């Protein structure tokens, strides 16, 4: 149940990142954005690129413990589980392993944009209160 919760939360954060990426591309042209918006957007994209690349290369270092009857096991990849490693060290790859690794990279790429989205919403609310 906890794994499903993690995947759903990660998917919602990814949607927020896509929404923010879309808005940042069009908000900067309308003039309804903070003065430092372009720098923040570029910084978010660069940070996302570094995080996405790191998650792609480091899938097997993002291990989550998952105990079962046979002993301690681990899922590799966060938030989308790509591979299961059992207590003996045997790797179980799934039919969706490649898609999970790609989804992890996209999630980590879009995570800073989701934070930028929160900042943009806060800034717009402050502007509406001042007006």
Q: State the share of residues found in helices, binned by percent.
A: 55-70%
Rounded to an integer in angstroms, the radius of gyration calculated over CA atoms is 18 Å
Shape: elongated
- Report the major sheet: 4 strands, antiparallel
Q: What is the averaged pLDDT score?
A: 79
Keywords: Membrane, Transmembrane, Transmembrane helix
Main traits of this protein?
alpha+beta, single chain, 131 residues, 3 helices, elongated, transmembrane, 4-stranded antiparallel sheet, membrane, transmembrane helix
What are the SSEs and their pairings?
Elements: H1 2-30, H2 37-57, E1 63-68, E2 71-76, E3 83-85, E4 91-93, H3 97-130
Antiparallel strand pairs: 1-2, 2-3, 3-4
Helix pairs in contact: 1-3, 2-3
Describe the structure.
The chain is of the alpha+beta class and 131 residues long. The chain is 64% helix and 14% strand. The chain contains three helices and four strands, in the order H-H-E-E-E-E-H. The protein has a four-stranded antiparallel β-sheet, with no helix packed on it. Helix 1 crosses helix 3 and helix 2 packs antiparallel against helix 3. The longest helix is centred in the last third of the chain and has 34 residues. The mean pLDDT is 79.
Entry summary:
The chain has 3 helices and 4 strands.
């Amino acid at each position: 149940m906890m794994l499903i919760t993690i995947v759903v939360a990660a998917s919602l954060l990814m949607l927020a990142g896509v929404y923010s990426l879309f808005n940042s591309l069009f908000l900067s042209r309308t003039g309804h954005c903070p003065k430092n918006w372009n720098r923040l957007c570029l910084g978010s994209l660069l940070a996302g690129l570094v995080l996405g690349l790191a998650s792609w290369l480091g899938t097997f270092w993002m291990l989550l413990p998952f105990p079962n009857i046979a002993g301690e096991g681990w899922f590799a990849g966060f938030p989308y589980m790509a591979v299961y490693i059992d207590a003996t060290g045997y790797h179980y790859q799934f039919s969706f392993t490649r898609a999970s690794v790609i989804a992890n990279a996209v999630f980590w790429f879009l995570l800073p944009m989701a934070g930028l989205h929160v900042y943009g919403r806060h800034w717009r609310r402050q502007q509406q209160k001042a007006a």
